[in-house]
Amino acid sequence: MNFQDIANNLSVIPAYAGATISSSTTTTSTIVIDAQGYESVMFALYAGTRTDGSYLLKILETDNSDGTTGAAEVGSYQVQGTLTASNTVKKVGAKLSKRYCTLSIVSTTVTSGCVFKGAVAILGGARNAPVA
After folding, report:
1. What DSSP state is assigned to residue 70?
2. What is the C-alpha to C-alpha distance for residues 21 and 36, in angstroms, rounded to an integer?
3. For the segment 25-69, what is each residue's pLDDT rounded down to a tens digit?
4. Global pTM?
5. How many other CB atoms are there within 10 angstroms of residue 119's CB atom?
6. Gap between the Cα atoms of 38 and 63, Å rounded
7. Distance between CA atoms of 43 and 35, rounded to whole angstroms?
């Protein structure tokens, strides 16, 4: 078996069940990603029909397993990627300094909104490969 392939060096985890966002708000996923053994994360978010509003994807990280206690936004200097669009998959990623992370969507100027189908977290930079 070749452990150099991409499948043996990344982990893919459900990260957001999806929802329709129809007001200006901050929506944080209840799914907490345990990034132990990895150096970075990328969230891939499937955005459906977007009728209005602006949607900014953010990554929150913490050392607490509940994903919220002490959570702080990953510094903008660490985040790469385009943040949102209609009927497409967009990504946001960061090099992590804490063990746990979650996805947050900040929506502004929303009157009717956007349908988000869901997201996955892709963990990379595995310290031990192959990964399960």
Report:
1. T
2. 31
3. 999 999 999 999 999 999 999 999 989 888 888 899 999 999 989
4. 0.88
5. 25
6. 14
7. 12
